[in-house]
Amino acid sequence: MKDIKRYTITSALPYANGPVHIGHLAGVYVPADIYARYLRNNGKEVLFIGGSDEHGVPITIKARKEGVTPQDIVDRYHNIIKNSFEELGISFDIYSRTSNPTHHETAADFFKHLYDNGKLIEKVSQQYYDEEAHEFLADRYITGQCPHCNNEHAYGDQCEACGSALNATELINPKSALSGNTPVMKETKHWYLPLNEYDAWLREWILQGHKADWRPTVYGQCKSWIEQGLQPRAVTRDLSWGVKVPLKEAEGKVLYVWFDAPIGYISATKEWAKAHNTDWKLWWQDESSKLVHFIGKDNIVFHCIIFPCMLKAHGDYIVPDNVPANEFLNLEGDKISTSRNWAVWAHEYVEEFPGKQDVLRYTLTSIAPETKDADFTWADFQAKNNNELLAIFGNFVNRTVVLSHKYYGGIIPECGELTDYENEIIEKMSQFPSIIADSIEHYKFREAQAELMNLARLGNKYLTDTEPWKKQKENPEYVKTILHISLQICASLSILCEPFLPFTAKKLQKMLNLENKNWQEGGRHDLLTAGNPLNPAEYLFEKIEDETIAKQVQKLQDTKKQNEVANANAVPSKEDISFDDFQKMDIRVVTVLAAEKVAKTKKLLKLKVNTGVDTREIISGIAEYYQPEELVGKQVLMLINLTPKNIKGVDSHGMVLMAENADGTLSIMQPHKHVKEGSTVK
Ligand SMILES: [Zn+2]
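That is the input. Now the predicted structure with zinc ion docked in place:
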């Protein structure tokens, strides 16, 4: 075991083309924050690094779509993301971004170092080029027909219709998304990192060295990558947005985003060190530093294989000690998706649930996808708040502080003689710092938080067993002891909950007049001194009502509906008919003269219309989509020679024509220009 002097903690750089959602929080940022806070509370030297990943093709595509610059896109999302993290108490020491000059310089230098030391190989390849736009085309910028399913709108890297991964050269009839022209093949030179040369080292370092301490899911993915045989991987590409390749012959080329993004951790460290007048190299190049990468499972190959190979190739760097990657979090049984808007967005949550940051943090940790995919539901979120945070933690603290105010005017009572039961409680309490620490140090945050709640349960049980409110009359001395011990448990909770529930810890410590203490002190029963005053009791948690949850569920259902409409296909066409058949229909433009709801029905309106031929009454099933007054005076299309039908006591002569949307909603049909009543439609 090496002697660890400091901890370099990184969390995956969120991609700045959208806000962050609960999947990102549960997978990466909440566990990383718990780890960082825990270490700080232990007096360790910690650097917790985050930042936005601002390069890559999807950002340029989004910018082109919106008619803005890539910088506009990343500025927008960097700020939204950064604010969400701050609001949720993610305690980065620095949150930087890869469009910063320091990063461009650091990434370019890193490349240059590898290049100068012969660690890269050069390869010439053929790539699609748009002769009108004078640009090589990234795979995403080429569309064409999928060779597998014939979808006409497949991309150069993937067909979204059938899910096949593609090479741009496989597309039938390829077109450039920049100009619409057919691209041509042109020679281009790129630099590659020969991953295959690191095979033996990776086998020794990961497959032998980390069999026991890396998560089985992480280890398993690494093993499978290594055993499939690693190939040289291009570190440069033809693109204008990104870190320029620092070579004369590389005009118009930038570093591949997978290469520059992890170097962002190093650049951020440099920025932080400069601001704090200290040496950044200690965190990355000193053997007594422990490097831990927090990521989601989609990033395992980059952080366990590719980035370590880059660091190894460079030669001056340490490699990660652990990469506790999480599996994925689903939402209400469905994959979280940015493009389908199927997510709980961090920035929306903090706005809709003010002061409830810890409830989200708690719920996400309680279902953390550490070993397999997990599912977030709003019903579970409500239950975690109402049945655990409020009923156990909040209730215990509230009863203790309220009784202390009631009996002693808010002055901490003396501890009298201890019975065996109190000694047992004190003994149990003293074990919690080590129990919780052991779980955290093994990256089992879910288990660690469950243990924290066991301490709250212990307090709750102690109060329920001893019932101080019943003993105050006949045995007030013992009640003082009970509340003294209960207050000490509250103090212990306030220290041990800090990594998980930082906002609650602060509130509770304020109530107790306690400063945050070192982690190990969290097990002591003399944290509070008799005779010292308490502050007034405050609620740590409040009940979350059914209607609050119903609103969130409705929001998701609305999203689902919108997605269905967006993805719905038109109904298949009907059998052919003759022109004579069509001629039988007498469709006219009519004007609505009056409209009213048909009593005791939900869907029906009675309309009086001028057909040009006559004035008549008809019944129409559009009451759910139009108010009567909206229709009066409007011209609509109507089939006037439909056999009359008696509906709800009214003889309905004809039918108003409607377009039915994919979600079943109806829309009236109007002529594009005003025409005379009775005009025929043909
Ligand atoms: Zn396809």
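The chain has four domains: 6-110+258-326, 113-238, 375-523, 579-668.
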